[in-house]
Amino acid sequence: MRSKTLYLAALVVAVGLVFWAPPFSPPTEAAAGNGAADLARMGPYAIGHTNVMLYDTSRPGGRDGFPEFATTGRPIPVSIWYPVDPSTVAGKNSNAEYPLDVLYGIAPPSTSADWEAYGIDPAFEGPAPSKAKPFPLVIVSPGWGAWNWIHSSIGTRLASHGFVVAVPYHFGDQAWPWEPPYDSLAEASYNRPIDVSFALTDLLRRNSTRGDLFYGVMKPDQIAAAGWSLGGYASMVLAGGDDSVCDLIPNEDWALETPPWTCVPAKPDPRIKAIVPLDGSNQLLHFSELARVKVPAMGMGEEWDMLALDPPFVSWQARQHAAFSGKPAYRVDLYGSIHQTFSDFCEAGHLFIDLPVDPGFGDWILSTFCGPEYIASPLAHQLTNKYMLAFLKTHLAGERGYQDMLTPGWAVSKEQVIEFFVTEKRNPNSVDEDWPGLFVYFPHQSGSVQARGPKDGKTMPVARVGVVR
Hints:
Rossmann fold, 469 residues, 10-stranded mixed sheet, 10 strands, alpha/beta
């Protein structure tokens, strides 16, 4: 077993750098009141869950000193949440199984009940899907070095509102110290979109296989890709491609070696009809590559002033929004958020103490990422899921009744901690620049603030990616 020091070092790289921020006091969120289902709460369905293990024989699974997957190919564990009729599980205890260690089973197991104590919706292991099938499918890629259960809040909440949600774990991310050493950023970037497409192909195979739990459960023409951090990069690649995966990887010690075989194009997946990057790593794509994203897109992430604490990242959210060519393209900034806000990292900190996995590490997570200076995790999850649902129901599933939520006016009058953007300033030279100047972006939603925003006309320095946001 590798040392705890190495473990913590890997996790610090994986989860990103944290910057000081002024104390944050979230106001009480206003009621939705849009005449449609209240997307801030659990939906009408109970939640089913299952785990599957896939193997891609076209890519290696064995590693030096770690031969366990040498003969199987690359392992791709996937957690799947799906809608269930409430009558199917009436009177039963929520018993969904969330293995913390999906490859080796060394870490303690966890169940839905462990997570419910911290606000995650209850789920049941393996019940029959709802008779109201089929449903749209959302496949979510976690951040670099993160577990797949780190998005249980998204999986459960979206499933309760009528979506199938699949979250793979990416082999080579070394989420636990006893796994093979984590891949370089170039390798992780290369493998992520392929993992998602491979898992999607298997899900659609199950969807058409009689007798399978998921037979007829998904709508093959309504598939969205979402992802946090490097997973957000994957969602953008699946929509628009990447001409050379390795070309924007920094030459720094932490990035490890960049293998030549990663300097190849990553192709988009035409089955993806919408994307939701969550604080996605768009700095790994040229502006012109981002401009090839033509499906509906909603990027959610940190608010401009928080990003401004690290100047190279200040226009990070706005950059991708300005580049995306799809209609609609939305930008949603969440006040008081940091990079870890868009995952279940705070809930994981509690579980590391409760189970116990590593109480000291759990304490470090809670004190570093989950203090009162940041938006409270339950409110952040509520807002993230609500906006994902409004976007996906409107622009993937074609449902009516949620468009009012997808407006700046709604954000101003109802949310108070959300800034919502439908358009972004963009000059004619933007597509030819990797990081256009600040003057092409809206720092804030208010028109008066926009008018007074930075207009220095200087080109931003190339984004440093010492952390993969």
